[in-house]
Amino acid sequence: MLIGHEEKIKIFTRLIKEDRLNHAYLFFGPPGTGKTVFAKSLTFFLEYQTFKQREYPLIDCLAVASNPETKNIGIDDIRNIKKFLSEKPLKSPKRSVIIDSAENITWQAEPALLKIVEEPAPNSLIIFISKSPENLSPALSSRLAKIYFPALSKEQITDILIKKHNLSEKKSALIASQSFGAIGRAELLLNPKSQEKNLESLIEESIINLYLKDSIQNSKTLTSLLEKEEKIKRFNLNQKIQEKAINYITS
Q1: Contact criterion met (CB below 8 Å) for 104 and 236
Q2: Which tops the pLDDT comparison, 229 or 128?
Q3: Which CATH architecture has domain 6-148?
Q4: Bridge partner list, 127
Q5: DSSP secondary structure letters along 133-149
Q6: The pTM is what?
Q7: Per-domain boundaries in the chain
Q8: How far apart, in whole angstroms, are the C-alpha atoms of residue 48 and residue 54?
């Protein structure tokens, strides 16, 4: 659902129709602001002329995410990207690659990826997704067209919750007021048991609990936790290290 991104939809629709898309973008902004959803919806528009995610298969799009075990995007992923982009599109005017959590690209893999960006294959599109341009190396970041996704307003999140989850306006507004502008945090408030236990989710849970208890009295602690959450999202941690940290915090 792309509420709050109507102007971006108009701009990208026009760029596609006029064949003026850049070959490489960085979608950046706070977590939970719709960067990945927008990227996937863009690829659906390229293939099906509808700017929203559908149940149809995407033929000319490759989604790349961090390896579940290493938490990295490595050289093998870059080889797959290069091979995929070297092939001609079948249904879409572009062969698209979406790289989520781009800050997890390893230093060994980055030179090969940088070469792909510098020497793009015909009819190729790469979308990097990260919280900040600073999460990528200057060499890579400087070669990407940057699109900022700001935190959503309380009204926007309320509207999303009403439409997506069929909630009452009162309940949606209450959850939206506790979400800090992130639809992802609002979804967690709706279903707190759905998130895998890791250091990020533990801090997320603490933020929500402190906010609900007394947001004013706990304002300094909330600020500190939000800063810690940002660093965790920016810097990858080994899963075993995360488990030790969780055990230490919860013991």
Answers
A1: yes
A2: 128
A3: 3-Layer(aba) Sandwich (3.40)
A4: 25, 98
A5: GGGS-HHHHTTSEEEE-
A6: 0.72
A7: 6-148, 154-250
A8: 9
